[in-house]
Amino acid sequence: MMKRIHISFFLTLSTILLFIPHTTQLQTSQAWTLLRIQHLLGDPTVVNTWTNYTDFCNTEPTSSLTIVCYEESITQLHISGDENSPPLPRNFSIDSFFTTVVRLPDLKVLSLSSLGLWGPLPAKISRLSSLEILNLNSNYFYGPIPEEVSLLRNLATLILDNNMFEGSVPDWLSALPLLTVVSLRNNSLSGTVPDSLRTLDSLRVLALSSNHLSGDLPDFSSLTNLQELDLENNHLGPQFPILGRKVATLILRNNSFSAGIPSEVSSYFLLEQLDVSLNRFVGPFLPALLSLPSITYLNISGNRFTGMLFQNMSCNDELETVDLSSNLLTGNLPSCLEGESRTTVLFSRNCLDTSKENQNPYSFCRNEALAVGILPRKRKKVSTARVVLVVSAVVGIIGAVVLVGMLVLFVYRRFSMKRAMRRPPRRLIENASNGVPLKLLSDARYISQTMRLGALGIANYRSFSLEEIEEATNNFETSNFLGENSYGQREMEVRYSLGHKESHPQSGWLKAFNFFTTGLFPVGMLVLSNGSRENNNILERKKEDKVDVYNFGIILLEIISGRPITTQSDVDWIKDQLQASIGADGAARRRSMIDPMIRKACSDESLKTVMEICINCLSKAAAERPSVEDVLWNLQFAAQVQDAWRGGDSQSSEGSPISPSQLPQSLVTLQ
Questions:
Q1: Which N-terminal stretch is annotated as signal sequence (predicted)?
Q2: Which residues have C-beta within 8 Å of that of residue 73, sequence separation ≥ 6?
């Protein structure tokens, strides 16, 4: 009987033990470490139930608190406080806190979020040599990210978002060969993205948004496992990043990217989210982005993408959001984005042919595209001989400008003298030896300088007498004026029958060439204030001269940029671009503003001089514009610089070329 009871007792006990869960007894030292952490954190709500009797390894995990143990040691510690928790009190010591944390040497995961931790991240964190995941999101850490983190050779995930870390993105991240996630969002990091990140073969996520980073990105094509690149809210650019084909999320929003989107992006078949909004992108929109096999979110708003949309374009059926707003798109919205489509579509402030949302007129998009050089004017293919001829014409255009200007100035002065000689009893002081007026002798320097243009390879020209010009202009008939306001007397055709008709190659890119060689003069330069009232007339003549200089500046602006100028806004915009390019370091930006044919044929120094003259001629205040004489002297200097650059000899029998020291100082350099 007793034997049966004994056997029954052991069977019952065994059954009970089977249903008792297996527990891990935590080392006493690690239990005390957790209680110390509770105290240093100020006993926040998430851990305020901990006591000396808490079974830490068997607490129910929650989204705010998780502890994982293995063989009497803590391997994972997740503590998350309330969102937007304030910094811990002033007596909090970040050094003491991490001195306590590193007493958990077997930690593989350490996640301490929104706990109000503040101070520089201590270097002693490197003692957690087993650490694989480090998450210190949403605290108040500041200073540089310590290099000692690079000693955590098992680290695969580094999340330091929403802190105040400063300095650069660590170059030493490349020393962590197992890194798959680097997330440093919303800090105060600056400088460029280090080139060394290219070596992180296992990298899948790189998130650097909301910092102060700038410059172009390294070539990330070697990061074949990269799936997410988040660079939002920085100053990166201008070149589009070079990436591998596995990227699924690409966020470039609110940066300084200004080049076009390369066609290779159309082959990113895993791409799900693409946001390039609020940049300076130009060039054609890639319709293929709408039909990428994985795309669900596409945002190109706030750029200058061009192109015509068509109703029959195809879209991915899984598209959820498409934002095309504030670009230069024309045509019709694709039918796959209209009707019963469940896609959220935004397309305001384009030039689409629709009454929906706010659209600009077609001319707005075209003019804006032309203004930034997105839509090049069509050029016909020409033979090699024609190209040589056009380039030769370009090289000589500066000299042609000087020639015409000097001719008109000489005619004007001669005409003024003739009128003065008709007035009684005005007396001229004459040269005792030959009877030539001293005024005319002083103007002879313009004739001698004009003759030097022969050294530039410009075609021979003939001088016209005053009588011939009077006949051609109907005795300087004032009805030829097109306007006399401050904006200027626009150029008109004064076609004269002087038997001087030459054949020149026509080029759409340089209307002014025809202007100079076939007799199309700016009226203000040909008919200068031919009244007779003396004092008032002198002041009026000076005023008109300044208007003529402004108009001449517009002509130079068209020559330099190779763009048609039809409005005052065209003048102001192109002038501002030239002004900025002159101040830029190096010649690259300057030359990017120049008509390609002129850019190939002319030296940078010559172009820069003409650009400076042009900008000065277009000064808003008439008093700040140079005189006609100053313009001519500077243009001739530019022509001779160009000739020297070509390896020719611009010297004539009359002397050496003009040097900058001989020019009016106000025109030698841009003031």
A1: 1-26
A2: 26, 27, 30, 104, 105, 106
CB-facing half-sphere around the CA of 336: CA atoms within 13 A: 16
In which order are the strands placed within the sheet that holds 164-165? 118-120, 140-143, 164-165
- For 555-584, the DSSP string reads HHHHHHH-----SHHHHHHHHHHHHHHHHS
Q: Would the CA dihedral through 228, 232, 234, 236 be positive or negative?
A: positive
Q: Which two tokens stand for residue 200?
A: 């992180």
How many angstroms separate the CA atoms of 158 and 145, rounded?
11
Contact present, 160 and 120 (Cβ < 8 Å): no
pLDDT for res 671: 29
Which tokens is 565 given?
């100028």
Q: Which helix (H) or strand (E) holds 16?
A: helix 2-18
Q: What per-residue confidence (pLDDT) applies to 544? A: 67
Nearest Cα to 140, choosing from 159, 168, 154, 160? 160
Closest CA to 82 of 59, 100, 63: 63
Q: How many helices (H) and strands (E) does the chain have?
A: 17, 23
> In the 3-class helix/strand/coil scheme, how is 626-650 assigned residue by residue?
CCHHHHHHHHHHHHHHHHHHCCCCC
Question: Which residues make Cβ contacts (< 8 Å) with residue 103, sequence separation at least 6?
Answer: 29, 30, 33
Kindly report the number of other CB atoms within 10 A of residue 503's CB atom. 7
How far is the C-alpha of 248 from the C-alpha of 226, rounded, in Å? Answer: 8
Structure tokens at 406: 């000097």
Q: At 377, list the tokens.
A: 């004017």
Task: Report the C-alpha dihedral over residues 324, 327, 330, 331, rounded to 10 degrees.
Answer: 0
User: Which residue has tokens 């940066």?
Assistant: 255
Q: How far apart are the first and last CA of the chain?
A: 119
Please compute, for residue 38, the number of CA atoms within 13 A of its CA located in the half-sphere on the CB side: 18
**Minimal CA–CA distance to 290: which of 269, 268, 313?**
313
Q: Tokens 């605290």 belong to which residue?
A: 139
Check residue 299 and give its pLDDT: 97
Listed residue (510, 526, 502, 513) closest to 405, CA to CA:
526
DSSP, residue by residue, 498-529: SS--------TT-HHHHHHHTT---HHHHS--
pLDDT confidence of residue 490: 67
**What's the confidence (pLDDT) of residue 569?**
78
Which residue stretches of the chain have pLDDT < 50?
1-23, 378-388, 390-391, 395, 420, 422-461, 481-489, 491-511, 513-528, 530-534, 649-671
Token digits of residue 412 = 């004007």
DSSP H helical ranges for 131-205 = none
Residue 273 has a CB neighbour count (10 Å cut-off) of 19
Structure tokens at 622: 């008439």
CB half-sphere exposure, 447, CA atoms < 13 A: 11
